[in-house]
Amino acid sequence: MDRVELLKELREEVMHASADVITSDMSLSPFDADQLSRILELINHLRENAEGNDFPHSICIIARFMNYFYRAKFFNFCGLPCARLDAVRSVYEEGTGLHPLIGALFPFFDFILFMAPQAHVESIQRVWVDQCIDVPRWKDFSRNLLDEWNGIALYSTVMLAVDVSFLAMLNADVDQPQSMEVTAIYLSIIFITGSLLILFLLTQTQRRVFNTADKATHRLEQLTGTSYGVKAVATVHGLPACIAYVGDHLLHIRLSVECVQICDAGHAGMDFQRVHCRRHTHMVVHLGN
Fold first, then answer.
1. How far is residue 216's CA from residue 71's CA, in Å, rounded to a whole number?
2. Which of 140, 147, 145 is nearest to 25 (CA)?
3. What pTM was computed for the model?
4. From the CA atom positions of the chain, what is the Rg in Å?
5. Contact, 250 vs 191, CB < 8 A?
């Protein structure tokens, strides 16, 4: 096949992948829409040198892109009855591969961690199918995960500042018994600080170990070869949000106690005013008589 025919075939592959990305959320394309647009623009430039024979760089460019498309066809069993039609579906029989104890304990951990691990499991399973990573989906997954962690870090920082402010107010008022409020504030600070520490470690790991699809594939292959599977990764990914939620609830407990104390003080003041008014009325009546 000459270069002109190869270029035409590559153009057909790119246009088909572009249509698949536009019309489907489960596209099998190895490139996203922006990359396909740039590839198509590059093909239009390659057509100027398609007739010549002294342009090895053009041949290298065509071969490299064709390699990506044909490798995707190979991994997705293109042309076979068992071909993968959606990026998130496996072509093999489903199997957990988990240790029975892990499978039994995961629902418990999922419950006490506010269902966050299960949400992360579903996100990972959308990009890690049959021990293969869908590169465009992995980029979106990694970006969304870092955005989520940045949001939790910002929220935890604000909550930590609020906790320290309340703690300073409690320390200033030393005449009142405040054991419960101080304990709740200290526990809230511990949990939120732990959330920030875990976020720092996870962000560094994500940028060092999972920053590229190849490194992520190697690491996930190691994890799925154990009895823990990707559920361990999902549980760790959900820890920062869960710990921050616990610290937030402890702060709410402190605020609830404060509101109850204010209401009790208000009722006590109203009762004092009522008693004082009654005594004053009795005195006026007595003097009048």
1. 18
2. 140
3. 0.74
4. 31
5. yes
